[in-house]
Amino acid sequence: MLLTAGSLFGQQPAQAPKPDVNAANNPLTPMITINFQDQAAPLLYGYEDSSNAFLFRGLVPHRLGGLPQLFRFTLPVSTVPTGAGNTATGLGDLNIFDLFPFRVSKMEIAVGPQFTFPTATQSGTGSGKWQAGLAGIAIAPRKWGLAGTLVTWQHSFAGDSSRPTQNNFAFQPLFIYNLKQGWYLRSTATWNFDLARGSFVIPIGAGAGKIWILESGVIINLFAEPQVSIAHSGTGQPQFQLFAGVNIQFPLHTTK
Fold this sequence. Notes:
Radius of gyration: 19 Å
Oligomer: single chain
Number of domains: 1
CATH class: Mainly Beta
CATH superfamily: monomeric porin ompg
Helix content: under 10%
CATH topology: Porin
Number of helices: 2
């Protein structure tokens, strides 16, 4: 069963709500979503080379087992430095999580399990490990925009025994400020912590985006967000990144 925003949070409106700018940027909006996003890092600490990750990401709302859920997958195509001015490009590791949403006062919250599969086609573009953990999202929608966070943690439990153990925590603060005519300001940089080796990077982003709503209700969201790291530990961490992409959302009525 596919869900609309009302059915996901226990409401049953007579018709699907009209999409708005907040719906386009809320990661808990229950629409089938396709994302094409790129994370370019032209400057790395300890390397003269650059790196890049193109992300193919999707979100599918469903009711497996009768409970409303949000299933998200991310498959990267990464280019990473290998030394001596060389790089390697290939598929990365497939990440999925399945979130169970609920409300607490005016907050929208979702938690659930996440898994990472060693699908990388190059040793440098993946971990070589099977990983499992948890993911959680908290969002506070407001008239002016959105504030919230995405938090994930995962640990390796199987895979190539010659590859390092994975124990990773990520914290992504999310801030959206709506402007006129579908424009908005954004800050969504992800803070990554490698708990197994003690390395980390904390970037801060400041960008903008534009929303178009088609007559069919499909939402097109185009954005760009430069990000600068203000703290780090370990080599290979990005000094500067450019996060950009297009998100496409397809609103659906509840179907059986």
